[in-house]
User: Fold this.
Amino acid sequence: MSRNVYESPLSARYADDDMKYLFSPDMKFRTWRKLWIALAETEMELGLPVTSEQVDELKAFADNINYEVAEQREKVVRHDVMSHVYAYGQQCPKAAGIIHLGATSCYVGDNTDIIVMTEALKLIRDKLITVLRVLAKFAEQYKDLPTLAFTHFQPAQPTTVGKRATLWMQDLLMDLEDVEYQLSKAKLLGCKGTTGTQASFLELFAGDHEKCRELDRRIAKKMGYEDCFAVSGQTYSRKLDSQMLSLLSGIAQSAAKFSNDIRLLQHLKEVEEPFEKNQIGSSAMAYKRNPMRSERIASLARYVMVDALNPAMTEATQWFERTLDDSANKRISVPEAFLAVDGILNLYANVADGLVVYPKVIEQHMLRELPFMATENIMMDAVKRGGDRQELHERIRVHSMEAAKVVKEQGGENDLLSRIAGDPVFGVTLGELLELVKPEKYVGRAPKQTAEFLEEVVRPVLAKYSFVAEDAPEINV
Assistant:
């Protein structure tokens, strides 16, 4: 690692090697050569003066890139594509004259960008599956554990710890649907020429329009795609970049929501993210266990959500068949969004896999609030025994206010049940009231909903992607 030049933290700290390689120069230039081979081979098949000997020569040097030659040439001609055409030609003298025949720079540049984004999206898809697996185990384990739910971050009708995890999973499943849809419609730019009209190829094929169309189809097949965009300018529509980063932004939003919930739960001491034996929570306060991984998720997610504006503005301001104000922006914004989401999902899986749940604290919080929530049931039972509903309502209001004053002003425990049991108008014992306020009686269908969701929604998805390796979630720092 060089310590005297800037290095992106996305590479140094967050993203995995597989994702970093996809956006590396080596991946790009190897893909360029594959595209040049596909072009030459297809031109030969369609009758242009390209020989099998030339194609074989190109294939022989597909992965043996003479980078030094290309770099020296670029210093002279100031053009990366033509520098690599020259370097390839130095290795393949018989084929030198037909490399890049009829094509413009976007043939290799844009098709490669699409290929890289598509492969990167597959990595993201696999990591979504990893997170879903981890959360599914967590939801199954805690589907019956009652916990306070919150609306407006105020205590509300109870749910279960497992049911809450299904909410995180539901967001990720929506993201996965978007990923699947985007991958299902992946297509290349093809070979469209300088303004998208294929004029150079129409000239090469002596006016044969069908061969121009077949050129696109065959190149797509050779590169592993079903089709090319039907029409384009010089570039593929930058709408694709915007769609890709909008999708990544959606994943970042889901992860940020999860991380915020964990940070709040850690404040409540109900659930904590993993904290390793030798981990330091604070340089000053040695006792602290800060939710630093969840905070990192939120931090990176914020970056991705803002970064997604870049291709949106680029698409909106492309002039006619193309301008070049997209290039510098997209070569930063697109890779960094993918690398950041790769890091986010690493963190998400790691945190979810090591969550620590404290049932006693959860129960304590429940019992502090449940008496208030149970008052309607208490009142209805008293009415059934002959009580006056209006009088009972007033007595509960008075007792609730006094109990709340003990909790809020004196820092005491909620004694509402004792007050009600001591009021003869209700005709109920403390034991009966304690039986009435058992937390599991107030969670509704949460346990069943969780079980149904896992069985009917999640497990079919996980079965579909059983080929995704079950790697232990790890983070770099």
